[in-house]
Write a structure and sequence with these properties.
about 375 residues, alpha/beta, Aspartate Aminotransferase, domain 2, Aspartate Aminotransferase, domain 1, 2 domains, 7-stranded mixed sheet, 3-stranded antiparallel sheet, 11 helices, 16 strands, about 15% strand
Length: about 375
């Protein structure tokens, strides 16, 4: 636990933007012993299958395929739908979103974001559609739902696939149930920094059994049976030790979310009156997951965004500028016509103002108060 009984002096413990949740070791050891005794380490072992079933029940979905990480899941999702040509996506995300397109030989087409949600702006999508466009790849940024109805309407009108990068959106619901039911596929990440983690891991939410069957084959090199390979698949299988971690952590997920919610609430209360600091809108729908706590540092704040970033680091508080730079600013993308800053004014502004503050279950509220105090009086 972070001890933060300080008065603007150095923290007694480094405070990062996030910290992986680890269950008590004694809860994990019996699973580890079963793995050792069974000698089944991977290839759809008992814990792998149990976690798939448990996650389907917990998330309210019918079919789910586990993966070694979220990036390989994104790459496979696109392959499974045979997406080609151009795909409309957001410049405001982690690079894995667009990298998955390049791995499939697909051209990313960047579209600007909504200034309030920082999600892909549906009003900008239609103008970016060309005869080569085959899909839309939006991101539920920070776990806040995209405008799924507007995006699906556009996709239906132009016969486009929709694959949601839902890396941040584990456990998020809207009025109709799980947010993950939207689109042709949704992709989760279970990286150590996520609200639900398996050390490393990911998953694809599948609409039916036949789609799951194809994805299961693609994540196992494309094997159909012992001697038949019918597609250039990849090694995306989740190992048993990762699945075991997921089974243990799932037991306390509600408590984890309650803790994150308390931190979120405390930040909002303490930062609400600070000039130049805007907290993004809270979780949408029935239940959010408080995956991140992003603030926007405006021109009327006492410091620049980077000035505040470095001020916090001086006292061993380490926020992150998620997402800066924009994906579209990296060398492999910036030559694309859609990557021009004049095409992405809202995304450019967000990337210049964003700062994600520390939020994780073990973060004490006293520490949250100290972070807020330094922001209010830098």
């Amino acid at each position: 636990m972070a001890n933060c009984n300080i008065d603007f002096g150095p923290m007694k413990k480094r405070v990062n933007v996030t910290e992986p949740y680890l269950p008590p070791l004694e809860e994990f050891i019996p699973y580890l012993k079963q793995i050792w005794d069974s000698k089944v380490l991977t290839n759809c072992g008992a814990f792998h299958n149990q976690l798939e079933e448990a996650l389907c029940e917990f998330l309210g979905v019918k079919h789910l395929s586990l993966f070694t990480n979220g990036t390989i899941a994104l790459v496979t999702a696109l392959q499974s739908l045979r997406v080609t040509g151009e795909v409309i996506t957001t410049p405001y995300s982690f690079v894995a979103t667009s990298h998955s397109l390049l791995w499939n030989g697909i051209k990313p087409v960047f579209v600007d974001i909504d200034p309030d949600t920082l999600n892909l702006d549906p009003e900008k999508i239609e103008a970016a559609i060309t005869p080569q466009t085959t899909a839309i790849l939006p991101v539920h940024c920070y776990g806040h739902p995209c405008d799924v109805d507007a995006i699906q309407s556009i996709a239906d009108n132009y016969n486009l696939k929709v694959i949601y990068d839902a890396a941040h959106a584990f456990g998020v619901s809207d009025e109709g149930g799980s947010l993950l039911r939207h689109g042709d596929l949704s992709v989760l990440s279970f990286h150590a920094t996520k609200v639900f983690n398996t050390f490393e891991g990911g998953a694809i939410i599948c609409p039916d059994a036949s789609t799951k069957h194809r994805i299961d084959q693609l994540k196992n090199f494309g094997f159909v049976d012992e001697t038949t390979v019918d597609a250039p698949g990849i090694n995306g299988k989740m190992a048993e030790i990762n699945a075991a971690m997921g089974l243990v952590q799932l037991k306390t997920f509600r408590e984890i979310i309650a803790r994150r919610k308390a931190i979120d609430t405390t930040y909002r209360e303490l930062l609400s009156g600070v000039p130049g600091i805007r907290c993004l809108q809270g979780a949408h729908g029935k239940e959010g997951n408080y995956a991140y706590f992003p603030i926007l540092v405006g021109a009327d704040y006492q410091l620049s965004r980077d000035g505040l970033y470095h001020r916090l680091k001086e006292v061993d508080i380490h926020p992150r500028r998620y997402f800066y730079p924009l994906i579209s600013d990296f060398p492999m993308y910036r030559g694309l016509p859609s990557a021009r800053h004049d095409n992405l004014p809202m995304a450019v502004r967000a990337a210049e103002q964003i700062l994600c503050l520390p939020i994780y279950p073990a973060l004490e509220l006293e520490c949250v108060k100290e972070v807020a105090k330094i922001i209010a009086h830098p």
